[in-house]
């Protein structure tokens, strides 16, 4: 039995890998990504990136542009500080809310390497332009000129601010907000009140926050929900894509009468187990190739970003990847066994679509339930989704990205493997019924009895 199982597994693995469509199957995600990039390139001309990020400040008086530049620089520092504060575990260095930071604190933070690097990403710059006799006409000319490097123009009048934008202009509301803030700061400085306002802001006491909810996430793990949602969604996409291949595989062999030759040579349970093992191995090969391609590209892109910008798993990437592999195996064994059993009942693509629809709907319900539970950690529903066998792999991988203890994952993996054994045992009987029967599709009564109709 064991020898026959591995013979079938080896046959299917070799036949799949050596087929002409295998390389195309491996390259499909890359082809899809290349097509998306190509479509974005040929979709139409794009303005230079710097054009939409540069704002001309036309100031006849000559004293507003420095205020505008200082306010914009401090707001970039404030935003960079908030992004690091969201994902950083060092709560001591980022304890003060970004909205309460004073100008002196922002100027000091701008000198930090990590905050300065993040603030420089996509920075919107304000460039002082010498005012001409007609500032409004000058703004029109700067924006409408060919290959203009300005996306917007701010004209400073004695008692008003005029904003002119182009087609590729930056966010007008943000420019308006910064211009109003710069106007206020300049007015306070003119009245000699700027120092007093800053002193009042600096004297604001910090509000001590105590979280009493036991199910709340620990401090320093605010980036975990993003990773949790992403991990669960990626695992769902892989299982849906790879496990579904077992359906078409079975239909092809039944239509070519190959399955009848195999049934005459080896036991039916060995065929079932061999096919399940073979498709799991082929799927792991595909996951490894895609992981190297996209994971390598992601690492290269992440290396160009400032440190601390991307959230990291509390227990590290290596452990998360190891748990992801374990949960992928568990989920594939469960869903692969179901798909293989269902595929054995089908003789045509129409029957495949009819019988696989309930499984697909069930998977979508499970994904929605998992994402909902991850968004609201703690509580009875959270635990149900975590231990329900059809959703446990997705949910527990999401919890792994949020930092659940390792012992819980080991218990979950053991439970999923035990359930997979039960599913495989039942699906093997269903598979035996499907490959031995003949005639029209089975009725519910026949499925309940699992007695094959003699050929």
Give an overview of the whole structure:
By secondary structure, the protein is mostly helical. It has 2 domains: about 50-200, no CATH class; about 225-450, no CATH class. The chain is about 65% helix and about 5% strand. The protein has helices at about 1-15, 20-40, 65-85, 105-110, 115-120, 135-145, 170-190, 195-200, 225-245, 245-255, 260-265, 270-305, 315-345, 350-375, 380-385, 390-400, 405-435, 445-450; strands spanning about 55-60, 125-130, 150-155, 160-165. A 4-stranded mixed beta sheet has the order 2-1-3-4, sandwiched between helices. The two termini are about 25 Å apart.
Question: What is this structure's SSE topology?
Answer:
Elements: H1 2-17, H2 20-42, E1 54-58, H3 65-87, H4 103-109, H5 113-119, E2 125-129, H6 135-144, E3 152-156, E4 161-165, H7 172-190, H8 194-202, H9 224-243, H10 245-255, H11 258-265, H12 268-303, H13 317-344, H14 349-375, H15 380-387, H16 389-402, H17 406-436, H18 444-449
Parallel strand pairs: 1-2, 1-3
Antiparallel strand pairs: 3-4
Helix pairs in contact: 1-12, 3-4, 3-5, 3-7, 9-13, 9-14, 9-16, 10-13, 12-13, 12-17, 13-14, 13-16, 13-17, 14-15, 14-16, 16-17
Keywords: Membrane, Transmembrane, Transmembrane helix
Membrane topology: Multi-pass membrane protein
Pfam families: ABC2_membrane_3
Number of individual domains: 2
Low-confidence stretches: 47-51, 214-223
Quick one: overall form?
A: elongated
The number of helical segments is: 18
- Average of per-residue pLDDT values: 78
Q: What is the gyration radius calculated from CA atoms?
A: 31 Å
How do the strands of the widest beta sheet line up side by side?
A: 2-1-3-4
Category by helix and strand content? mainly alpha
Major sheet size, sense and barrel closure: 4 strands, mixed
Give the fraction of residues assigned to helices. Answer: 55-70%
Order of helices and strands: HHEHHHEHEEHHHHHHHHHHHH
Report the portion of residues in β strands. under 5%
